[in-house]
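HUMAN: Mind sharing a backbone?

ASSISTANT:
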Amino acid sequence: MSAIAEKQSTTTATAPVLEWIDPTTLSVDVNVRKDAALTTSFIASIKEHGVLEPVIAHRKDDGTVHVLMGQRRTRAAVEAGRNLIPVMVMDSPEEATRIITQVVENIQRSALTDADEADAYHQLSLIGVTAGQIAKKTGRTKTAVEGALKAKASDAGTAALGKGCTIEEALILAEFEGDTDATEEIESVIADEPEQLAHVAQQFRDRRAQAAALTALIAEIEATGKTIVQDASYYAGEDNIYPTHALRADGQDASEDDANAVIITTDYQGNHRVTAVIAGFEALGFTAKRERYTGETTAAKGPMTDEEKETRRTLIENNKLMVSATTVRREWVTSLLAKKQAPKGWQYFTIHAITHHSEVASGYDGEVAATMAGAKMEGEKSWAWNPLREHVAKTTTRPEFSLIALICAGYEKTIAKDSWRSPHQSHRDYLNQLVLWGYTASETEQIIIDSDK
């Protein structure tokens, strides 16, 4: 064979060829879209009009033709009894290319379920394709791909995807695999209040971290042989008291040297603190320096009432929930400002904040603002350290995003753990704007939003 003839032969072998093939003879590869979604109307259309868009396939060495794209059309043609369908036959692509091509095609057609998408990414990872490469080929973010792979790596995540959960939902269920209480609550939220999922998940994360820290602290205390009591007071009428608020039998101030136990207290941020107490102080001859004062004209004696205890529990719980909501809220703003375009109405939002709540522009936390703006954190954290200022000095692109981040960080600094108790108009303005942009407020944040109604 001459060189020219050999070249022509090679060209003929590699160029795609349109062929008319019996669909029953075609082999459909394991496709990333498991559900072919064959509807009665679609089959009827294929039966009447045939397959109008050619199926893409490749011919194996053994002569069999395998479908790459067009699985649904092929199966519908078989169901419709079509004798021949148009098939564009090409050389066999690499497995990774085949799967990526199918993923991209189905994503573009909005026909790929989250379960199929995660399964496709999983297949690609098994043959060595990295999350970054998958993201580049499919147009998804690397974070989204990594989340899907992490969900697939868990039995709980895989099961959730199989039940129709989104990748985000499956990833959260995978995160709490083995925690029955958390799993049951999260599944209930997914079914009834999916918009609250981010808040509930963060609450469980915070509780889990606090519980782990508490367990470690208790083990450390018990190793020293100290007794741990559940509560203590500053006043008379309780079983245990803090030494600084007690008097010895001789009338002298008690000290920590008189303590026979400790109490572990937890602040609204989940930080644990160990404090010395005198357990059973009255039986040991100690007295309290003062009676419990409730705001009445006379001192209130005796322990707290059930109503007072319930009020305090509500206060503590809502403060904790507000801390969890702050984490979710700030992460949401960071994601919002990572988009290509600034949110609608950002101009009025920023000018309104500066003119109506001037403290937000002057009192913002530079680190929070920089994080929201996606700026790099450079240099050591010290007094007057402001990474947002450094970020703005180095770039002239997307200045509106830095401005929005600055204003949001200013608002964030004014919102405290207990702002739900006495909301300010600035808090309502901020949260209402975020909700308008698509944020879902937590139940505690909703108290602030509804406070002016």
In short: DSSP finds 19 helices and eleven strands in the chain.
